[in-house]
Amino acid sequence: LFKDRDTWSGSPESISYRPGKGPFIALLALSAVATAGAGIFLWVVPTIGLGNIHPWLPYVFGAVLLGGALFVLLSAAFIALAAFKGSFVFYSPWFHTLLVKLFLPMMVMAGGLLRIERIKIERAFIDLNNQMVLKMGRRFRPEKLLILMPHCIQYDECKIKVTRNVRNCAGCGRCEVGDLRAISEEYGVDLFISTGGTVARRKVYEKRPDAVIAVACERDLTSGLQDAYPLPVYAIVNERPHGYCMETGVSIDAVRAALATMMEGPTAAASG
Ligand code: SF4
User: Fold this and answer.
1) Residue 158 Cα to ligand 1 middle (Å)
2) Cα–Cα distance between 143 and 150 in angstroms, integer?
3) Is the whole-model pTM more than 0.70?
4) Which of 96, 159, 184, 233 has the fewest CB atoms inside 10 Å of its own CB, making it the most exposed?
5) Ligand 1 pocket check: which of 157, 162, 174, 184 to mutate, most ligand atoms within 8 Å of Cβ?
6) Count of alpha carbons within 13 angstroms of residue 267, beta-carbon side
7) Quick one: the chain helix, strand, coil %, rounded to 5?
8) 2 C-alpha vs ligand 1 centroid, how far in Å?
C-alpha cells in the first residue's frame, strides 16, 4: 500500500494524470488506528493520569479520541473511493479545508516517522486537491484566472526578461515559455512567470484572481496551495529533465486541459 502507483493515460482532452494515493490513505488509516488505540487505552485504564483529576475525564477523552478515529477512518474511506473512481463523490468545502489544513500536515508528520518519502505524500495531496477543485464544478472568467509558472521553466541561456512581462518572449521554441505565451493570448488568461514564492504570492494578492493554475515542483505547490487556500488552485507538477530548478518543463496539454475544464465561455468549449 505504501508503494507509489502513478498512472498517466496521456489523453490531452482530459486531466488524466493520477499519482498513487496509497501512502496517503494508508497513513490516514494508521493514524485512525493509533488514535483509536489511545482512546481505548484511556477508556479501559481510567485510573491512570486523567482519572486522578476527575473520574469521568478518561471516558470523555477516550470518547473524543474514538470519535476522531472514526472520523479519520471515514475520511480515509472517502479518499480511497475518490482514488478508485477518479473523482470525489461530492464536493465538501469543510473536507477540502481539513485536507489542506489538517490531513496534509498530519500525513507529512506520520510519513516522516515511518520514513515514507515526502514527495509521495505531496503528489497524492496535490491530486486530491485538484479533484476537489474540479468537483467544485465552478467555471471562471478568463480575466479572473491566473496561470503561475516558475522562472526555472525558461531556457537557461535566454537573455530575455520574461519575469516582468511574458510578452517579451520571442517564441524561439527553446523552452515552453513561447507556447505558454501563445496559450495565454489564445485564451485571454493572465500568465505570470515568477522568480519565487514571495513574488508569486504578491502577484496573487495584487491580481486577486478567482482561481489559479499553478505549475511548480511538489514542495512549492504544496506550500503554495496551503498559503493560497481557500483560493481554488489547480496544481500541475513540473517536468524536471535536468533536475530541480533548472530548465524545467510542463505538459502543455495538461495546461490546456486545466484551462478547458476551469474556464467559462465558448473558448473553453471550443478547446475541449
Ligand atoms: S521561448 Fe522565449 S523565453 Fe524561451 S528561450 Fe525562446 S525567447 Fe527565451
Assistant:
1) 6
2) 20
3) yes
4) 159
5) 174
6) 18
7) 55, 10, 30
8) 40
